[in-house]
Amino acid sequence: MTEKHRILLLEAIHPVARDALVAEGFDVELLDASLSEDELCDRVRSVHAIGIRSKTQITERVLRSADDLLVVGAFCIGTNQVDLATATHRGVPVFNAPFSNTRSVAELVIAEVVMLSRQLGDRVREMHGGRWRKAAKGAREVRGKTLGVVGYGHIGRQVGVLAEAMGMRVVFHDILTQLPMGNNEPVGTLDELLERSDFVTLHVPATAQTHMMIGREQLARMRPGAALLNLSRGTVVDIPALADAIRSEHLSGASVDVYPEEPHKNVSDEFHTELQDVPNVILTPHIGGSTLEAQENIGREVALSLTKYLKAGATTGSVNFPHCELPWVADTHRVVNIHQNVPGVLRDLNRIVSDADANVQAQILATNPEIGYLIMDLDEEVSAQVCERMTHVETTIRARALS
Question: What is the pTM for the complete model shown?
Answer without folding.
Answer: 0.82
